[in-house]
Design goal:
alpha/beta; Rossmann fold; eight-stranded mixed beta sheet; globular; transferase; Lys/N-term_MeTrsfase_sf; mitochondrion
């Protein structure tokens, strides 16, 4: 993978040209309530009803579009522990987490977590009906109901190697009451990541806006300092998408 186009500390932000903003095809009811468990339960219930077969729902794009951002990080984060811990945060019914489990050469424990028990159940049923064979026989795949604002209740500090956020922060930031939750999620992600770990935020939000938000949040009391890089993922239906790589930085007292 080519190095990130912009690799910088949060104390020095560089503005990048904006692209067209994304407007999803979600219902008006869901837009503005993307931080609500009930809204996602309803969404996944309705999207799965009337269909005889399970279909993964990809917000933005699938694994093939982002594998060159994800898989190299697993190689560089190898450590003495038996398994690399990967969290697909706000997985919905995406195939991203299962695809990492399937393709990783190194042993990984992939946790696909979502606030909606409906989405988690659908993923579990699909995994049971169509078993996925991992490249590494020691790899593990789990599906967990999890509110991403409560990561520290499920993970210890410095225990996760890679967190993937494909649109979860976007959903929170675009909700009526979700901005505070997005801030809490970022804080807890930095807390549970190993010093060698990374948070990848995949988003259509322009770098000038997202980097400013990350910079502001990293200056809040009690938030671990971080470095961030951004690279363009590509264009889908006329919309530019980006990958923001956020890594915790040890605080020198």
């Amino acid at each position: 993978m080519a190095p990130f186009l912009k690799s910088l500390t949060l104390s020095g932000r560089r503005i990048v040209a904006a692209c067209v903003r994304h407007h999803s095809s979600f219902t008006t009811e869901l837009i503005g309530n993307m931080d609500k468990k009930a809204a996602w339960d309803r969404f996944y219930t309705e999207s799965s009803s009337g269909s005889p077969t399970f279909k993964h729902f990809e917000w933005f794009f699938g694994f093939d579009s982002v594998r060159d951002f994800v898989m190299p990080l697993l190689q560089t984060n190898s450590h003495s522990d038996a398994l690399l811990r990967v969290l697909d945060m706000g997985c919905g019914t995406s195939a991203l987490g299962p695809s990492i489990y399937r393709h990783s050469l190194l042993p990984v424990q992939v946790t696909c977590a979502d606030i909606s028990p409906v989405a988690v159940r659908l993923m579990q049923e699909q995994a049971q009906a169509k078993a996925i064979q991992p490249h590494n026989p020691s790899s593990q795949l789990r599906f967990v109901e999890l509110d991403c604002t409560q990561l520290l209740q499920h993970y210890g500090s410095s225990s996760v190697d890679l967190i993937i956020d494909k649109g979860t922060t976007d959903a929170l930031l675009r909700s009526k009451e979700g901005k505070g939750k997005a801030s809490l999620v970022l804080k807890q992600c930095l807390e549970v990541l190993r010093s060698s770990g990374s948070l990848l935020q995949f988003s259509d939000e322009d770098p000038d806006a997202r980097l400013l938000w990350l910079e502001t949040e990293a200056q809040q009391p009690g938030v671990m300092k971080a470095d961030v890089g951004v690279q363009e993922v590509g264009e889908l239906r006329g919309v530019c998408y980006y990958c923001y790589q956020v890594t915790p930085r040890l605080i020198v007292k």
